[in-house]
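Open question from group meeting: does this chain pack into something compact, or does most of it stay loose? Before anyone orders reagents, we agreed to write out a predicted structure and look at it together. Recording both the input and the output here so the notebook holds the full record.
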Amino acid sequence: MSAVLVVRGAADASAIRRALPGVLVHELPDLKSPLPADATVLVLRSGVRPGERELDALPRLRHVVRTGSGIDHIDVSALRHRGITLHRNAEAGAGAVGEWVLAAALALARRIPLGQHALLLGRHEKQACMGASLSTLPAGIWGAGPVGLAADGALAPYVGRTAFAAWPSNPPGLRELSPRALMEQSQVHVIALPLRPTTEQLIGEGFLARVAPQRPLLICAGRLETLDVTACLRALADGRLSGLALDPVEREHLPLLTGSVAPLNLLASPHIGAQRSDVRGALDRWAIDLLMEITVDDKPLIEGGLR
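Structure tokens returned:
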């Protein structure tokens, strides 16, 4: 009999049990607990990193289901080596993340986080909250995957213009600028890059020095590790950035965001870009449909690769 291990928050385990009465469903808060050796399918969310210890503890594992987009926290090569198929849904939450990007851009342009932080510190900083009209600000988007494209769709009606950093893998038909031109011309930067060795801390001191004359707003909707967060906070404090918004904050990132005693135009959220009830419902339905296919006669849905 198939057994499914659901990491809490990745899918609705109760709905899976109702839909698949013949399947044993385990639910655990994380992968640190003792793992059920009978699990043939693992359903996980962002921030959960199955390593060699976890894979060794799941000898029957044949499928990993990622209810979302990013897979940089998953060792795809290790899965392939063990004959484990990886499935993901990269599209379902992109529109919601684009909506978060628009909300962040509006909040930063109007300096709402600065005013709130000042009030919480017992200070009334109305004059420091003089904002800008978002409609006057050109936006540059770094990354043309589902999230980058959704950010463009959300921002385009409300900003001066949008353009993508030119890259060979970008879809055809996008308005592109060279990375250098994008840094020199944009007053809003949206970082929607996947985390790879070439993108880790890409947004660091060199980038910040290049964009400093525009004092732009910087919005991270991809992976936090694509930023040198300490350098970005320093640039925000000394005025090289006018605002900073960080969504993909996991628990391990919390020490990076503590310690400031001055109000900052900083918006940080606990990776809620795709946390919308309709998105959650769509991902739950997708996961259930996929699990029904996977667990029929315990036959693999596909051999290798990504779904």
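Observations to bring back to the group:
The two ends are 23 Å apart (CA to CA).
The chain has two domains: 3-92+277-298, 94-268.
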